[in-house]
Amino acid sequence: MYLRILWVLALTSLLVLLKPDDTQALSLGYTYRLVDTSSSVMQLSSVTSKQILPVQQPQVVKDSALVFPDYLERSHIISVYEKQVAESPDSSILLRLLTDQYLKRFREVGDVEDVLRAEEAARRSLALQPRNNQVSSMLLASALLSQHRFQSALNVLDDTETADVNIVSLKASIQMELGNYEATHQLLQRLETESSKANKAVVARYLELTGNLEKARQLLDEAIEETNFYTTSAETRAWFHVRSGDLAFLAGDFTLSKQRYQEALDLFPRHIAAFTGLARLYASEHRWQDALNAANQGIELMPQVETLSYKANAQLALGDQEGAAKSEDLIGVVAYLSKVKGIYDRALAVYYIEHGIHLPEALQIARSEVAVRDDIYAEDTLAIAAAANGQWQEAHKAAQRATRYGTEDALLQFHAGMIALHFGDRSEAIKRLTHAVKLNPQFHYKYADEARQVLANLSHLTP
């Protein structure tokens, strides 16, 4: 065991010092709507910082894809680095290595204290070595991103005196989270000759948001093929599979979507987003017991709002009113903790809107989110929140902004279509709703059927 830990220490040290690809990929990943570890109670959980993940026999995703459970050694590695930093507090390199491990454990376990430790260690490293220390700058930006401090993360990278493509790529991902898609496009032009898996993930996200879902899926699949057993952590590898699963869901390819989520769990058995993705997929198919099972597995690891909402919906569908009420109570606890921490959770606003409860609060959350993170999905949340509160002009404006790039997400198209219908724009409503159903016939457990019903009603009306 000791030799194994030493081997992992040597390997991870080399990776952080020479190739921050792994750090970059996950920095961008956890700011996305469906893979958002900093939202909800994940940031607020009471998981102990020294928790070690349970030993589980890893499976093989593909015959050629080895699975190394590096996450099982994470806390041991951290304890070694913490001791070395204590003995050599002026070593910027050791602080950099320690920062990277804190961030890895945060992504694996979800303890917000690890993010704060990472931020502190990265700042210490940069204080000791202000120049030629771009890896620490990226790590600091990653820690700030995990706290949804987007502008602060961008400022850190803007202060970095380098044209390194990894910095450029990470800046592009932050600009996307802020809704600055034109600035993102300009940055991505500088990555045309760069083909790393992390950069492909950034470009794929941009293509996804700007109406080229098919190409985005191709790039992510290429990135999956490029992930290496020796140079990429299990959790990071799983993240690429989750993202591929998310995009397959958007495209209505449920078979591949489920496969990707299962592959992610084979690589990293605690991947919350994989369980949440499965719960969403099963709910869309009205496979409520399967949705409940997947949601429960995710909630046992970390009670996030989105996962809890799928559990509550499944319980209601299965006739478990008492269980659904308890799930709703837990969502209320998460909502309270989010307020205390100043975290605005889109999933909470969406849950309120879909269930017709706390609508003024949902609108407040949506407006606050736009103020901090004015991306496409923030605008979409604002659109439905404003509509639910009768603020139709605000809803219309937000829906137009949410769909201005032709994002191939059926839910966005459905929301825009229903808002257009309210304004009597029959042709626009038909166009949006038809597009939604064509993109993904089962895009939502409730709204997909509603879209088809509205289209059927409109088809019987004279133009």
TrEMBL record:
Q: What Gene3D superfamilies does its record include?
A: Tetratricopeptide repeat domain (1.25.40.10)
**SMART domains tied to this protein:** TPR
Which controlled-vocabulary keywords does the entry list? TPR repeat
Segment forming the signal sequence: none
Q: Where are the TPR repeats?
A: 410-443
InterPro entries in the cross-refs: ARM_TT21_N, TPR-like_helical_dom_sf, TPR_rpt
In this chain the Tetratricopeptide repeat protein 21A/21B N-terminal ARM repeat domain maps to: 128-322
Which SUPFAM superfamilies does UniProt cross-reference here?
TPR-like (SSF48452)
Quote any Pfam family the record assigns.
ARM_TT21_N
- This chain belongs to the protein called Tetratricopeptide repeat protein
